[in-house]
Specification:
Layout (H helix, E strand, L loop, with lengths): L34 E2 L2 E2 H5 L1 E4 H6 L22 H19 L3 E5 H4 L6 H22 L2 E6 L18 H20 L4 E4 L5 E2 L7 H22 L4 E4 L9 E2 L4 H10 L6 E6 H6 L4 H10 L3 E6 L17 H13 L8 E3 L12 H26 L1 H9 L6 H7 L5 H11 L10 H14 L2
The structure holds manganese (II) ion (MN).
Length: about 450
């Protein structure tokens, strides 16, 4: 986009300039075509920009009004015109940044209408508009989702609402959002239950709400197959905020929920760094837990602030944290349909138009550098070798007979007595392993 319609004036195409570049509007580490561990960097990372924080959020917080320069938020009497203006700026940004994907909620791209029919027609119109921009720029859809938390009807949840009529409206909305995602060739569809939880147990029937949520997700699975959507369904865990407690608390909780309700094999996880910290976990823990359960789907890269407990959604800047997450992802075979979505927002005082570029460029270079370190850790196999040797006993006859069920407690008592089993403790080597990670990060070029 050029000329009068250009929104991010003064910023051109962002390109790779190498680690020694001093120009903040270049990539120092993200070199899309560079082959790392057998794949182009772009194909490993599958980077996406999120529509909501970047183009919808005005910079408002609970204490004050919007601060960001988002002229389309002054909707006036032409809400679709404003939505088109916002979308043009969004695709200008995606194209200049050079990220291959974007993500959206239905209400990010198309505003609510006065009636359900008008709301649906607006979404259809904006899906057509998006298809045009995608064809023009080559930007693809990593995932779509439905906003089931902003409208007042969802104050007590969507699928877990005490009123089945709210469930019905949410179901209609998700059917349409899934169809929109399918129409745009989305690689995944995400379910984030922003208000699927409770504020107080005094008015909450936990058993009913869990059954409702399971039924809702089964309906989404059914609809996915009915319309032939080939992408992956993902649940995004978060423990709290805005609710006091959210049912999709963390990766392990969702894994148990999926098993309990016969949904394993149909749904995987979209893991967010800041949601991990809200749950009292490291991001590394959440990614490793999902990988161990075979539920790794996609990630939302961001960070919180160590000095408060909020979901601040800041741009990631820790190469170490991202290296550990990417190490688990690469060790599990890498992303299939998933990728790295920057679920990130500017600070409220970052109100210059090019601040959105600075936030994303820093984040992209952080994950690119982490990819180099993680690939190097995987290629040399140093960590994997330690882990393999640590469990080597389980590959021997004793370990095998324990795991295949042929030994009982009594058999093991006999073995201990007769064979004189008397194991000695061995070093877990944590500090040494931490040094190995540091070395690979330092040397990643
Ligand atoms: Mn967040």
């Amino acid at each position: 986009m050029t000329g009068a319609d250009e929104f991010f004036t003064g910023v051109g195409q962002i390109s790779y300039a190498g680690p020694d570049s001093d120009d903040p509007l270049t990539f120092r580490w993200y070199d899309a075509d560079r082959v790392v561990a057998g794949k182009r960097m772009e194909d490993h990372l599958r980077l996406a920009v999120c529509y909501w924080h970047s183009f919808v959020w005005s910079g408002s917080d609970v204490f004050g009004a919007g601060t960001l320069d988002r002229p389309w938020n002054a909707v006036g009497d032409d809400p679709l015109g404003a939505a088109r203006q916002k979308m043009a700026a969004a695709f200008e940004f995606f194209a200049k940044l050079g990220t291959p994907f974007f993500c959206f909620h239905d209400r990010d791209i198309a505003p609510d209408g006065a009636t359900p029919a008008e709301t649906a027609a607006r979404l259809d119109a904006m899906v057509d508009e998006a298809a045009g921009h995608m064809a023009r720029t080559g930007v693809r859809l990593l995932w779509g989702t439905a906003n089931l938390f902003s409208h007042p009807r969802y104050a007590a949840g969507a699928a877990t609402n005490p009123d089945p009529e709210v469930f019905a409206v949410a179901a209609a909305q998700v059917a349409h959002a899934l169809e929109a995602t399918h129409a745009l060739g989305g690689a995944n569809y995400v379910l984030w239950g922003g208000r699927e939880g409770y504020e107080t147990l005094l008015n909450t029937d936990l058993a009913r709400e869990e059954a409702q949520l399971a039924r809702f997700i089964h309906m989404v699975v059914e609809h996915k197959h009915r319309i032939g959507f080939q992408g992956t369904l993902l649940i995004e865990p978060k423990p709290a905020e805005p609710t006091k407690h959210q049912y999709d608390h963390d990766a392990a909780t969702v894994a148990g929920f999926l098993d309990r309700h016969g949904l394993a094999g149909e749904v995987r996880l979209n893991l967010e760094a800041n949601h991990a910290t809200l749950a009292g976990h490291s991001f590394h823990h959440e990614v490793a837990t999902a990988a161990a359960a075979g539920l790794l789907g996609s990630i939302d890269a961001n960070r919180g602030d160590a000095q408060n407990g909020w979901d601040t959604d800041q741009f990631p800047n820790s190469v170490e944290e991202c290296t550990l997450a990417l190490y688990e992802i690469l060790s599990a075979g890498g992303f299939t349909t998933g990728g790295i979505n920057f679920d990130t927002k500017l600070r409220r005082q970052s109100m210059a138009r090019d601040d959105l570029f600075h936030g994303h460029i820093g984040a992209i270079d952080t994950v690119a550098r982490a990819l180099l370190a993680a690939a190097s850790l995987v290629e040399t196999g140093e960590l994997a070798r330690f882990r393999h040797e640590r469990y080597a006993g389980w590959d021997g006859p004793l370990g095998a007979r324990i795991l295949d069920g042929s030994h009982t407690l009594v058999d093991l008592r006999d073995r201990v007595d007769e064979d004189g089993i008397d194991p000695s403790p061995r070093s877990g080597r944590q500090e040494l392993l931490e040094q190995i990670v540091s070395r690979h990060i330092e040397r990643a070029r």
